[in-house]
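Exercise 3.2. Students should predict the tertiary structure of the chain below and write it as structure tokens, then compare their answer with the key that follows.

Predict this chain's 3D structure.
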Amino acid sequence: MSRRANPFIVGNSVGNTPAFVGREDMFTRVDLLLGSPTEVGILLFGQRRIGKSSLLHQLHSRLPAMGPWRPIYFDLHGRATMTAAQLLGDLAEVIARTAKFPAFTGREASIGAFRGWLREGLRSLPEGHRLVFLFDEFDVLSAPDGERRSHELYSVLTDILQGETGGQLAAVYAAGRTMNDLDSAARPLLRGVPVIHVSTLSRLEFDQLLDLGERDGSLVWGDGARDVLWDLTCGHPLLTQLLGSRAWQAVQRSHNPVVSAAMVHELVPGALKESHGMLSWLWDGITPACRVVAAAIAEHKSRAVTVDEMATVLRDSGVRIIISQLSAAPQLLREWDLLEETDGKYSFKVELLRLWVRKCQPFSAVRECLDELVPRANDFFRRASEMWQGAGDLDPKRVAAIAALLESIFNDPRMNPNHVGAALLLADVYVHQGRRDDAIHLLASLYPIQPIAIGPRYVQLLLQSVERPTAPQTEDERLAIYEKILEAAPRTHEAVVGRATILRERGQRHLAAGQLREARDCFVRAGDAEQVLQLDAELERRQLEQLLGDVQELEHAGRPAEALARLMGAPPPLAERPECVAMRERLTRRQAAEDTLETAVVALHNHDRETAIERLCQVLQLDPGHPRATRELAGLLRPPERRRLRDRWAPYLVFFSLWVATLGAIPLIIRSSYPLPVAQEVFTSDKCEAPVFPGWMFAQQAEVTPATVVATPAAPPPAAEVAAPAPERPAAKRVRRSRPEAPSPSALAQCERGNAWSCYGIGMLYLESAPATAIHYLMNPCDRRNIADACCRLAELYAEDGPFHDPISMQTYRDKAHANGMRTCLADAAPTVAPPAGDAKAPETAPTPTPAPVPDPK
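Answer key:
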């Protein structure tokens, strides 16, 4: 079985082979132009490796069949440094061999001899026949390197094509540059010559090329494989042949003829590696400005960029000024078919080429091309370098001339302000002149462009400026210089040590001033881990104190929800501390108790007694001392019979309460209408029964206690009216009534509305059965109305041994009782109390204040 051949050809010309497809429109146009005697030249323009050589070889084989043309293929590659005589000698050999002319004697004969030989040969051609020169790589004659000794060839070709031959000669030039990029000596030759742009293959021609692999059945393109290949190559002949060849080799190894879309993607890395040499030749054929712009666009995050975005990319890459060469580069790349423009945005036409530029020609590798953008600026740099190296003793005038020459490169807008070599040389000149700051400023502006070339000298000058300053420097200035050095060279030992020393000293100053956060930042930048750990611990302790203080303040203000939110919002290190965990659990229980109490209140409004009792019990489980839950639960747990009795006698109790309130208002009216002695006389007379108007109704707070008022006799009348001493007033009797088990709803309502005496009675009711509830209710009459007995009761509760024992609270309420007139509260002697019921008299120890004299009514 014969071995199958690879139908795809890579790297060589495919002209006059089965692998050549398409380009029929170009053949038709060439045939039309050559048919006109006035047309003596055609320029085939296109980027390198686009298929111009293959097209010339195909013309060489097809022109004889298209008309009376005798093609002469002549490759100029490698002949850039040859003289015109040498080139014409080689051309004569090819003409003689192809067109059957007589042999040309002498490879380096004179130009005149070549012209005479050519005229004799053209006379032997049949009438109407033309010699067609196919000049391949014609633009190598305009290469910038070499001595350009081929300029004379242009004038010879111009003469023989446009004047001497009478239309018997024509030429087809294949070049990778436009006429504007070619040498000015070639422009007369190409003036008025039609240009045919050789571009990528169309989609139809692309499919015809891929069909070569399927003709013998050795390869089958699977679903989507052709589309993926088109997206990568966009019909570029070389890259399409390359990927097709690698796909054919892959299916031959796997013995599976189907090429899938995924397989095409897998072939890309190998194709980039294999095409490196061929694409490098294409890359070398474009101008330095085009290389810079292409590399910048290839590295952009978006595949398509506008002109403004491209300028931003160049500036971000370190190009300070966008000169004319860089501005014109996108349009030139579009003419070379490397870029395409869509809606004002430029992008690579061939994605595979963009991937190669991004991988093999990054912007950092092409920055050196910036020095070659403007030839005149490069010439100035070379002249200045020669003057600097040959300066000898460096005469000041000579040095000044060198500086002026180099400064013109950066100051003249027609020059190249991005020239790295000129910047380094000018920096040395500035240092020699004692202008070190100007040298640093110049290098700092160009450091982003060429960090590798600029960096060492830039860092050296910065170190000199901080170690040997020309003027006194502040701490901030020295620190800024060290920062610049470390940015350019992070491992510079002198900069690391100097920066750390400054930051430690600054951190110690902040620490002495109590500025812990500023001190910590300095020690972090200095890399002092030990100091950072100590400051972190101290800062955490302060934050914990502040957090707990805020939470306690919110809790005491009756805002437990906000306190819990503040605690929950603490950072993780603080929230995990035991103190915060305990407080969070307590606040969570309290918040849950408040939420459960709300549901209990709703149940009470809905007359759901069982649910309310259940919820109130849950509240007390969460918060055992909750006052409202205790009160509500006590009211709900009273026996039903008592509640029904209360409901039955409620109207009568209301009437009785109004009657008692009326009687209670009488002494208040009398107190407000008469002086205290007169009121005492009225209520202690024989016509007023003490049990009806107890003494505490008219007792003056902070002067007379209820106990002493009961035992105080009426004030004596004036001496002129008294014939005999009045008998002593017997002590008022206290009527002891049985206390109910729970307060009435009216008393609770009065207490809720702020009635201190109702709260006092409720507190006395719970004094023995529920001390915690008693404390809650006794605080109101003591704190708001200064009822001495309530304060004394609170002092006694806090003085007892038990869960409520609190010496500080006991002392506080005992002082309030003393201030309100009850001097005997928790005193060493037995306290003065009201006399028991009956005819018993008040104790002799009870103080008997002298009543104030009654003013004369007259």
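Discussion points: DSSP finds 39 helices and ten strands in the chain. Residues 529-556 form the longest helix (28 residues).
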